[in-house]
Amino acid sequence: MFNNTRLAYISKSNSDLIKSYLIFWSLNNQFFSKIGTTLLQFFLKLNFPIKRVLKKTIFSQFCGGETLDECNKIVLNLSKYNIFSMPDFSVEGEESEKGFEDNMNKTIRIIDSIGKSKLPFYVVKLTGLISYDSLEKISNDKNSEFSKNEYLKLKNRLEKIILSAIENNVSLLIDAEESWIQDSIDYVSLDLMSKYNKKSVFLYLTFQCYRQGALDRIKNSFEISKKNNFKLGVKLVRGAYMEKERERALKLEYDSPIHESKINTDVEFNNSIEFCIKNLDNISMWIGSHNEDSFIRITSLMDKNKIMKDDKRVWFSQLYGMSENISFNLAKLGYNVVILIPFGPIKKTIPYLIRRAKENSSVKGQSSRQFLLVKNEIKRRKILTLI
């Protein structure tokens, strides 16, 4: 189903393919990947002028540009193949009240812009609207005076963004964060869903299936939605903070919230998908994954439950620069596909790029599968005869 490399890389030039080949080759080698990310952090600390090199290599592989306008060429190109785009301003974390307000206003401007382009989704990281410290305190104690005040700040900022999204017919995905601040994110998301998801789903909450009990959280949120008469938006992913979670649990000597094996994570993910598919009357789902087996399972479940391929309650997504074989083949078959396109100033997107590199090298088979597919397409096109 996903081995058609001609279709997967139909939008890439020969030079784009060779660049992807070299990048995935390095990510596929844990030694080079680790050395590369270490050197990158070192050069940045010393303010080495490496922006030009980054922009032409790993940045252009996984990011759409430094500005929203720079993403437009990619957005238009993907639309030719019935693939929607979701630009994502990938600057992580803020530290000041001014920074939070600026982020809120910038998010509203981006939503206004993508609304004019009729793009269906935008993602919001709540760590751009309030501090990590505040989110942790809200998670631990929602009833203290400090937590109440910080919660209201967060809710007010997020609500302004939601109103802009509704006006522009853009649905919002509330991004997941680390486990120790996630409860506060769940709380405010469900609070606002109860107001804005009455007739249709505008807000989606992210559930990370590498965490133990993800399905239980979905079921609990579902019961809350039924009790309060609103529809639940579920963004389902495996997760993005595995290494950080394990390191913190080890350092602070508590049980890691992360599944001990990938098999357990896959079971959590697959069971969550099945639950959502069976409850589509009250749930809309947005599935972010690069796992081919998962999409074979999902499409089979949709067929079994007589769900149309283009049902707007089910969306599939991948990150830009990864798993084009999944995105392009699903779109060709008529499913709803969105590619998330990170953008932002190079220096400020470095944390995102480093995380991408670490995840690709730590998830067994991820970069090697990408590397093999690109290699096969290069051979098919007969670009290079030596690989």
Tell me what the structure shows:
This protein is α/β, with parallel strands linked by helices and 387 residues long. It has one domain (68-348): TIM Barrel. It is built from 17 helices and eight strands. The chain has helices spanning 5-8, 14-28, 30-45, 51-56, 58-62, 68-79, 97-116, 132-140, 145-167, 179-196, 214-227, 242-252, 262-278, 292-304, 324-333, 346-362, 366-381; strands at residues 84-89, 121-124, 171-174, 203-208, 232-237, 283-288, 314-319, 337-343. It has an eight-stranded parallel sheet with strand order 1-8-7-6-5-4-3-2. Helix 14 links the parallel strand 6 (283-288) and strand 7. The longest helix is centred in the middle third of the chain and has 23 residues, at 145-167. The mean pLDDT is 88.
List keywords for this structure.
single chain; about 375 residues; alpha/beta; TIM Barrel; eight-stranded parallel beta sheet; 17 helices; about 60% helix
Helix fraction by DSSP (H/I, runs of at least 4): 55-70%
Mean pLDDT value: 88
CATH topology, anyone? TIM Barrel
Order of helices and strands: HHHHHHEHEHHEHEHEHHEHEHEHH
Strand order of the largest sheet: 1-8-7-6-5-4-3-2
Shape: globular
Summed up, the helix count is: 17
- End-to-end span in angstroms? 25 Å
What class do helices, strands and sheet pairing give? alpha/beta
- Total number of domains: 1
CATH architecture label name: Alpha-Beta Barrel
Q: Class in CATH?
A: Alpha Beta
Low-confidence stretches: none
Give a short account of the largest sheet. Answer: 8 strands, parallel
Taken as a percent bin, the fraction of beta residues is 5-15%
Q: Round the Cα radius of gyration to an integer and report it.
A: 20 Å
